[in-house]
Amino acid sequence: MNIKPNIRELTLQKGLGYPSDEELIMLILGSGQKGISIKTLSEKIIRTINTSEAHNLISNLENIKGVGKSRALAVAAAIELGRRKTKHLKAVIKSPQDLIPYIKHYSIEPKEHFICITLNGAHEIIQIHVTSIGTVNKTFVHPREIFSIAIKENAAAIIVCHNHPSGSTEPSVDDIKSTELLNEGSRLLGISFLDHIIIGDDNYFSFSEHKLLLN
């Protein structure tokens, strides 16, 4: 028995927040097995997820009739990806070193990625956004794009970051200019601009640490 088409269609229309946990599993599986409906299989998987630890999740999923190794791994991989993508939420940022673990993976990107990190009044991360992707040595960002995100999320503060594919973290003339524009925008809007961080090969440059932010 295959997944009902309306679940796929409704999810595409309404977003991934629409399906129940069981329906999300149905979307991952795609179909049931002979003699086992996808709905029954998904309900068993959710019960197993809720009663398993990370170290025994895959083996417990494999024990469900109709799952098997490949499906068990696919479900566990989806859970791990979700964990990695949300582990930054509510993390308190007091210094650049606190943020680096959540953004360092962008340092290996072959093109410049400009990132906006929104924070609440306690300097807890609200969300991390890729606002633009440029070339191997340049990316363009407009303060309007950055602050529209901050306003939408009711952020009290922002930190921006971008990678240098060359590996060097020395700020360019454009980096300095964009930082000045963001600084000016933060003063006008009353949203704190805490830092601009450049990441490269196992290194970073913080405008804040170098006393280059004039809030």
Characterization of this structure:
This protein is α+β, with helices and mostly antiparallel strands. The protein folds into 2 domains: about 5-85, no CATH class; about 95-205, Cytidine Deaminase, domain 2 (3-Layer(aba) Sandwich). The protein contains 8 helices and 5 strands. A 5-stranded mixed β-sheet has the order 2-1-3-4-5, with helices on both faces. Helix 2 (about 20-30) crosses helix 3 (about 40-50) and helix 7 (about 145-150) crosses helix 8 (about 175-190). The chain starts with a helix and ends in a 9-residue tail after the last strand. The model has no long low-confidence stretch (mean pLDDT about 90).
Oligomer: single chain
Q: Specify the CATH class of the largest domain.
A: Alpha Beta
Q: Please tell me the overall pLDDT.
A: 90
User: Mind telling me the C-alpha Rg?
Assistant: 22 Å
- Can you summarize the main beta sheet? 5 strands, mixed
CATH architecture of the largest domain: 3-Layer(aba) Sandwich
Provide the succession of SSEs: HHHHHHEEHEHEE
* Strand composition percent: 15-25%
With strands numbered from the N-terminus, the spatial order across the biggest sheet is 2-1-3-4-5
Query: Counting H and I runs of at least 4 residues, what is the number of helices?
Result: 8
List how many beta strands DSSP finds. Answer: 5
In angstroms, what separates the terminal alpha carbons?
Answer: 61 Å
